[in-house]
Amino acid sequence: QDSAGVPKEKHDYQSDVARLRKIVINSLYSHRDVFLRELISNANDALEKLRLTSLTDKEVLSGAEDLNVTIKAYTDEDGNGRIIIRDTGIGMTPEELTANLGTLAKSGTTEFLARAESTDTTGTGNLIGAFGLGFYSSFLVANRVYVASLAAKSAHNPEPVQYVFSSGADESSFEIYSDPRGSTLGRGTEITLVLKPDAVEYTNPHKITELVDKHSSFSSAFPIYLYTQRTEQVPIDEDRSSSEDPKAAIEDIDEDEAIIEDISDDTEEEKAPETKSVTVEEWIHMNSQPPIWMRDPKSVSEEEYKSFYQATFKDYEEPVAWHHFSGDSGSGVSFKAIIYVPSHLDDSYWQNPLTSSSRDIRLMVKRVFITSDLGEDALPKWANWVKVVVDAEDLPLNVSRETLQSTRFLKQLRSIILKHILQMLAHIAEEDSEKWEQVQKVFGNVFKLGAVEDTKNREKLVGLTRFATNQRNSTSLDEYLGNRKKGQKQIFYLADMGSKPEILAKSVFIEKLHARGYEVLLLTEPLDEIFVQNLRMHKRVPFQDVAKAGLRFGDEDVSPEEEKEEEKALTEQYKPLLDWLKEEVKEVVRDVIISNRLVTSSCAVVADMMGYTANVEKMMSASQSGPKSPMHEFAKKQRIMEINPRSPLIQGLLRRVEQLPTEEEGRDLEAEEELKEVASVLIDGALVRSGFNVPDSNEFFTIIDRVLRRSLGVSETAPTDTTVKPAPPVDSEPLNLQDPLDVEWPDYVPGSLRQPDSPFQHEEQLFWDVEEIDEEGNPVKKLHRASEHDEL
Ligand SMILES: Nc1ncnc2c1ncn2[C@@H]1O[C@H](COP(=O)(O)OP(=O)(O)OP(=O)(O)O)[C@@H](O)[C@H]1O
């Protein structure tokens, strides 16, 4: 209860709000200009809500006819700067004041807090708008904020009462009370900021005009007025005739509508000068221009487009590109639209790219905001990040989201937006390499996802995809085909999720292609493999995984028959080695064949047409599903070992295998064992080189160890000294931890649980610091293990 007897309800801020306010106040000083934009944006939202509600319930409009925002700034009788921002929007009941301004209902707020607390202030500045924490920005400039609000009259709330929310910047609580002035607002909300002494500059009308011009003037469809006073010289006669009570206007400054012009008297009549100074009060319409999307694109500056985007979509970063156009939907709905490409994706985009839906298509009808939620299928999922403002001229104003779904307009709008977005992106690709690089970084994978998801726009999306190759950093598939060699009938690619193109470029699989001058796409993103598997071909040229069987250069000098003959001859020549190897490595590969892809490497493991490449295998084991299915087990085994007949190692091995004495000649078990080891190292090395895991890495290294010893002439059987000190016998005594208080700890601070010399220094929160009373009633300081304490 205050001195005027108004009962005041005191509420503690929800703890997150308290944290948030602290961050806002402490770390956003350099961004404090934002407060005005945030409050105007809230006022605009409240007016939009009212307008929308009034389409179905006219009653809500009663109380205040005009829908507008007014701003008044002055210095009060105590010398404090004050700014009053008032709107005639939907208003808030006392419950809503508490819920909206005293708690944070937003999802993502915790994330914001975590990030804000861990980042520098610039990062926080960017976050504040994105997370919709607008109202709290008022505490950047105000020591105290009063929010008086009168909710709109409605069937649920036929007798609304004006309430006030009041809070100081340093208080951990806020008050709610009925406004002692009564219901003066007619309807809507009035926010009074009692400015901090160092924020009085904001009472300057020029400063306010500058901020509104910069951030808000173009985005609101509702008029924003600023109260001003200026002194003018007027002829005395005119003065007399224009006002009976010159002081009235000053008293009347709370009457905010329209334009009030009046005069105050400060001269003495008897001197009868020709003119005299009068104070003229005026409400200046700050956003007299139509909203930006209604204007002729030629009259809108780049800055205006950017600021409009930032204010509307709450993004501190500038958009990459936009397109402003008017059109006709084809179903007779004419519209104006601005489509923006943001410079980043929301953090959540990749968390669930195929389930979220767009909330950023702001649909208006004749300047009245209708909705920004056009339902699940407003756009294909890949395009959820597109930001659009669209104003339709010929839809009925009372169109609801439900009826919208059934209009043809929405469907047409979807294809119009997509068409323009794709055109914009293609244009950037052609015209602006620097920007295109930026777009690729952010959206490169989005285009690949789109090409898989959106079959209708597939061709255009494929046109936007780029890939690294062994010859250049980035190529489109069309450019790749333009660079194909005579006879080449495949698009060669090598995929290894999470690798780097420069590493892939050295892969065993592409050594021959590379040496011969063929271009190979090097795919390192998880989506790449899915992309090529889905597309299967581009312009009818199939993709060929060079880690799989089936590689054809297309310029083979010999006819397929001759080639077969050659292969047969080589296979015949190498038969002893192939047979021997097949037996040795049958657990790991299905077959061993002569390779046509290897140049310097001795061997490689490739996947058969039906098998998994190392990359797919990696993806399969990363995903939850699949690995256990029989199909998976089958596919895993479909590997082939290819050996390079020109490799001296292979040639040497062939000789050694051929020299092995047969059963009749009397087997040389030692030589056999030695060769077995060579085979084992060869296959494991080939697996590793080809990106697969070796079946038993311990065994692998043991053999390597033996082979190394042999080559160094060290005895293969000489044991390593493996003696270690064994652990003492089992301790059968009951566990008796030393009381930590008995330990002499340097600088022991009660309650500080992680002393440097503590035997428990690596354990978290091991003890509770508790007070206990002994039998004589004296306090005893004791530390208990946390778990014991819990059990007690
Ligand atoms: N002038 C107002 N009239 C009516 N309700 C308001 C007004 N200002 C704030 N509110 C209510 O208080 C809530 C919290 O406002 P706040 O500015 O903190 O976040 P927000 O407006 O929801 O998010 P954002 O600032 O990103 O739009 C709003 O969602 C709205 O319901």
Automatic annotation (TrEMBL):
It comes from Fibroporia radiculosa. Coiled coil: none annotated. GO terms for molecular function: ATP binding; ATP hydrolysis activity; ATP-dependent protein folding chaperone; unfolded protein binding. Residues 235-277, 718-741 are annotated as: Disordered. Keywords: ATP-binding, Chaperone, Nucleotide-binding, Signal. ATP binds at E38, N42, D87, M92, N100, K106, S107, G108, T189, R401. Pfam families: HATPase_c_3, HSP90. This is Uncharacterized protein.
